[in-house]
Amino acid sequence: MAFLGLGVMGGPMAGHLAKAGHDVTVYNRTASKGDQWVGEHGGRSAPTPAAAAAGSEFVMMCVGNDDDVRAVALGPDGALAGMAPGSVLVDHTTASADVARELAAACAAKGVGFVDAPVSGGQAGAVNGALTIMCGCDDEAVFARVRDAVAPYARACALLGSAGAGQLTKMVNQICIAGLVQGLSEGVNFAQKAGLDVDAVVAVIGKGAAQSWQMDNRASTMAKGEFEFGFAVEWMRKDLGICLAEADRNGARLPVTALVDQFYAQVLARGGRRWDTSSLVHLLQND
Amino acid sequence: MAFLGLGVMGGPMAGHLAKAGHDVTVYNRTASKGDQWVGEHGGRSAPTPAAAAAGSEFVMMCVGNDDDVRAVALGPDGALAGMAPGSVLVDHTTASADVARELAAACAAKGVGFVDAPVSGGQAGAVNGALTIMCGCDDEAVFARVRDAVAPYARACALLGSAGAGQLTKMVNQICIAGLVQGLSEGVNFAQKAGLDVDAVVAVIGKGAAQSWQMDNRASTMAKGEFEFGFAVEWMRKDLGICLAEADRNGARLPVTALVDQFYAQVLARGGRRWDTSSLVHLLQND
């Protein structure tokens, strides 16, 4: 197997493949990180995506954005240049549905399978091998092979439709979270301004119709103003940008998602680039 | 015991008191409803709140809004006029924190206890005796007595602070729900516009950071455009109005809550007065 992109997500994901006994060849744009990974996990490091991919039945990648995906997969030394018919490219990057369809077409032209497979579960999910993987694929048999291949780092792996459907599902996830976290932020800040004990309030309302994963896991840290962990605001903005661009194409209105994206821009302006998405409450607590 | 206000919530709540063996005297503005309740549950119907309250250790009320609360509790024939020192008035209406404090003061002047005790759990919670009750009370001993008294229709009953704290907690609940349901609406509509199967998407993302009670219980009906059930938009607007007025006082900004309130106004304009709060998605599905 090959794994391209050893960031905070890709590094531990590739590690799980090695731990599962696979012979893993890795590629990373900053080569020293690839060597470090090999030092910890074994396997080999390759100088280009094509070299890493050569001879692998499965090539996983997890990079930054659409441009990175195109460069790593389709560039002159990109993964596809090294892949043989019958092998499969799996893209774990959160990217646009367009780039997923573009990769699917390029792969199909070479007889290579493709699955867009963005993940949720964050860094903790990657480290613990407990990611949720949302897949789009034009071929169910290819998906079935990939589901087995990614099992070492998956808690769940579902096929949602043809190429791009994985990305679209991840977009739905981020859209739901945006409005939810802003609502929770307004609730937590209102509770504080009203002199209530946020933990006591959550203990009561967290059993009913206001309940959410975010309330269960973030209300308490929001009340304390703790944001140095979790899913970074700069990543959320990247993801929401993808959602808003896709909505322009499919005609779905996203009034609150667009507004929350602007609130995240304000969080960035206040130095919260690496803060958790729950830092929306910071704007309300400090205006 | 006395119960004042036999609406969709109060009627079944009072019924649970009767089923628990209490001798219940009821009052309802439309007297025929009181007689109907007595026909089903026994007890007695009284012509005024004061007459219903006379001789009762506990007087529960569940009426429409602040003005109704004032009329039923403090009017010339209001509950307080019939109550003796040592008895307790429990207001289950979702109302302002101001009216709660006003009632607490009026009760205190007569040696009567007061608990503001708005509920969540909806009509189903009232019918099934499984409401969550959020209490504000200046006297813990009074609260402890009330907790036992409301047990027949409570799944949970918590003291959140002094008089008004129950209402403030209910406000936090509605604020959290407003942003959450709008985010979910945008997600569901986006999924539909993107050609995804909403139930399949929810089965995947409903296990992670986007999870919510609303997603678990409403995403599927939202996708189908089913809104003829649940918590009515007109009630939600009343509640959000209370939240926005209180925020003007305590300085908490509610940008998305205020926006969602306007969206609910649009739902009302489209004939959705009795639709469930999840009908926000209708605006996106039909623009």
Structure description:
The structure is a homodimer of 287-residue chains. The first copy, chain A, has two domains: 2-161, 3-Layer(aba) Sandwich (Rossmann fold), CATH 3.40.50.720; 168-285, N-(1-d-carboxylethyl)-l-norvaline Dehydrogenase, domain 2 (Orthogonal Bundle). A six-stranded parallel sheet of chain A has the order 3-2-1-4-5-6, sandwiched between helices. Chain A has 287 residues and is α/β, with parallel strands linked by helices. The first copy, chain A, is built from 14 helices and nine strands. Chain A has helices at residues 10-19, 31-41, 49-53, 66-74, 79-82, 97-109, 122-127, 140-149, 165-193, 198-205, 213-224, 233-250, 255-269, 280-285, and strands at residues 2-4, 25-27, 44-45, 58-61, 88-91, 113-116, 119-120, 131-136, 154-161. The interface between A and B is large, with 72 and 72 residues.
Which terms would index this structure?
14 helices; Rossmann fold; three-stranded mixed β-sheet; elongated; 287 residues; N-(1-d-carboxylethyl)-l-norvaline Dehydrogenase, domain 2; homodimer; 9 strands; alpha/beta; 54% helix; 2 domains
